[in-house]
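Milestone M4 deliverable, item 7.
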Amino acid sequence: MSEQILDEIQHLIDEEAHESALILIEEHEESFQEDSFFFYLKGYTLFRLQRFEEALESYKKSISLDFENCAAYSDIGYVLLVMERWDEAEFFIKKALQMNPSDPLGIERLGLLYYSIGEFEQARDCFLTLIQLGHENSRIFFFLGELHAHLGEFQASMDYLDSCLEIDELHLDALFSKASLLEELGRLEDAVELFEKVLSSVEEEDEMLDVLVSLGSCYYKLGDLKKAFEIFKRAMLLDDSHALILNNMGLICLELNYMEAAETYLSRSLKVMENFEAWFNLGRCHLKCERYRLALSAFRKALGMDPGREERSYCYYHLGQVQKSLELYSQACESFETSVSLGASLVDQYLQYLECCLQLYRLEEGYEFLHKSKVKELEYYHALFLFTVSRGELERALRFVKLGLRKYKDMPALNYYKASVLAMQGKAKAAIKALKAAVDKEARFKTMAKKNACFSSLLEDPEFLELVKI
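Output delivered:
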């Protein structure tokens, strides 16, 4: 009779009829007080019903009746893993593996534990052990793909995800992870194709929402703002109070110059949850609309969100723009200098900074600050060339261009700037030589030179005319 009841409970569990299984368990519990397997089944049933504390008690009762019950130790470890009680989970999973070192389920659970606490190398070793033991399946390959992505080993990650998909071509988690990896690698068209494939198969709203957010992000990065807006709008039908989606809708409207809509979406995002991105984009919105006091407040609140270094650098750049517009030149200089020190490198940033320095009669100090700054990208030399040429400081402009060419040898744009200055100085041969160096690399500089007033002194020079002939 007892064997028949245990078989019936096991059958109900196999059929995923866990509530019915628990009813049967409770009806007969008095008759099985000394049966370890009965309490093991009760523990498993309670776990599947997400009654975790009760499940732990039943598993422990099972162990008290049979200290060699390896499966109960392993299951306790897994329940504790789900409950994020990491140290206890590790103890019980390792206890089970001491009893059965080659148990594939125990090894997998230990790998999942290490994965959950961020010990990715140890997690990888566990899953590789499973493969060495001949327990290859799509799930193990998927986890290895995820682990290598976390470790920054993208090719290995891609290989394992492909191995997973060879076994199960509709493994949605693997498809989503591969699409995310392609997005990370900048292969946006391929990522879009995979995200679309996943979207056509998912049924759960939460999963659909994740895919739509990622798909919208890809379209945004591809510059297809209207398609991105359409995707995020679909996402809003599933959750109209999702801060990230609202922020992305606001950002797209901002880029499309739908300023009223941008402000509405960003304000709604902030009501859901204050975050750097929404405050930053709202500040940009106010700046574009010349609402400088509101922009000032928004950028300061964005900085109060403790953003990362890159985010802070661009926030200070925009803050400087606002302060300059309010004629707060000293504050603007400080903001631009902070932006530069944090690593931002934008042509407009350098130009506006130097204009503020000019207003404060501190131009030489501005040049000196920029000279000492660590970040000297191409934009730095471009801005200094434009600023000094606009002021007629040709020798200084030429000096900045030559400094740029020391770092960016044979850079066509810098040779073009050099040719421009030399032409304005009346140094025809040197100008043509520099222009040839630019044109040899990029033919577009031919057209630019023909239309550039800087080269007007060379318009009758046969060598120049031959060089810019299209």
